[in-house]
Design a protein that fits this description.
The chain is built from 8 helices and 10 strands. By secondary structure, it is of the alpha/beta class. It has a single domain, classed as Aldolase class I (TIM Barrel, Alpha-Beta Barrel). The chain has an 8-stranded parallel β-sheet. Bound molecules: 1,3,4-trihydroxy-5-OXO-cyclohexanecarboxylic acid. The site of 1,3,4-trihydroxy-5-OXO-cyclohexanecarboxylic acid has 15 residues, from strand 4 and strand 8. Homodimer. InterPro entries: Aldolase_TIM, DHquinase_I, Type-I_3-dehydroquinase.
């Protein structure tokens, strides 16, 4: 595929959708100290995008408002620790999509919008990308996407299946529908039950890449799906999640090793 003709998305000077896929490292610390410690280690890795898994932060705070306050308080030290070059993706993965805690649609919208609009006048936003599960309440999803647009923050539209792999037509439809909803980077993460399911995911990824409508992410989870994480470039996925220390999903490989594999497998 000729790279020049693909649309891309740029966050903090990092262009997604052209050339070697980006490595995204999830930060899974339960409190500020382990969060910053993991961020520090991730800075020494080849990852240019770090994903803060908000649902894993402060599990002791059951109340959504108290949790939101703790997140907003931790944002500034985390941003400072990351420096100017690393992009920050914020993700609250609810239990319905494999995350660690439930959250109502309303509270999810309030949390994400507080993170999006939290920038002080004249400063660059602390957050560069926001993840939203597109199956959530329509008006909440639309409102988060609109707020992100207004603040120049890229939207990752998310779909997870921890039980299986939908058929190829459905995967393609999901990715296209996320883009049509306003996601800059549609994303699907599904679970293979056979090697053929991995092929299904890769084939759907390639089909959507050939649309040339912008970057997307397609992941087959678990050890069976690991090929999809390192063969991202050949099959058109713009980024791949990899771990530094503790990971956030089955099948994630170490960031250093993934960087080496991405280089070895460059088409
Ligand atoms: O959506 C994704 C992808 C992921 O589930 C994975 O399989 O690597 C890991 C999550 O942290 C992230 O939000």
């Amino acid at each position: 595929m000729s790279d020049e003709r693909r649309r891309t998305a740029t966050v903090r000077g990092i262009e997604l959708g052209r050339g070697r896929p980006e490595i995204i490292v999830p930060l899974v610390g339960e409190d500020l100290e382990p969060l910053l410690a993991q961020a520090e280690s991730a800075l020494a890795s080849p990852a240019r995008i770090l994903e803060w898994r908000l649902d894993l932060f402060r599990p002791d705070l059951e109340d959504a408002g108290a949790h939101r306050e703790a997140v907003l308080e931790a944002l500034s030290p985390l941003r400072t620790a990351l420096g100017a070059d690393r992009a920050l993706l914020v993700t609250f993965r609810t239990t319905a999509e494999g995350g660690s805690r439930p959250l109502s649609d309303r509270d999810l919208g309030a949390l994400l919008e507080a993170l999006i609009t939290g920038r002080r006048a004249g400063t660059q936003s602390a957050v560069d990308l926001v993840d939203i599960e597109t199956a959530r309440d329509r008006s909440v999803v639309d409102s988060v996407i609109a707020a992100a647009r207004r603040h120049g923050i890229a939207v990752v539209g998310s779909f997870h299946d921890f039980d299986g792999t939908p058929d190829e037509a459905r995967l393609v439809e999901l990715l296209r529908a996320q883009r049509a909803r306003g996601a800059d980077i549609p994303k699907i993460a599904v679970t293979p039950r056979s090697a053929r399911d991995v092929l299904t995911l890769l084939s759907a990824s390639l089909t959507v890449a050939e649309d040339r409508t912008g970057p997307h992410l397609a992941i087959s989870m678990g050890s069976l799906g690991a090929t999809s994480r390192v063969a991202a470039e050949a099959f058109g996925s713009a980024a791949t999640f990899a771990s530094v220390g503790e990971g956030s999903a089955p099948g994630q490989l170490a960031a250093d090793e993934v960087a080496r594999m991405l280089e070895l497998l460059r088409p």
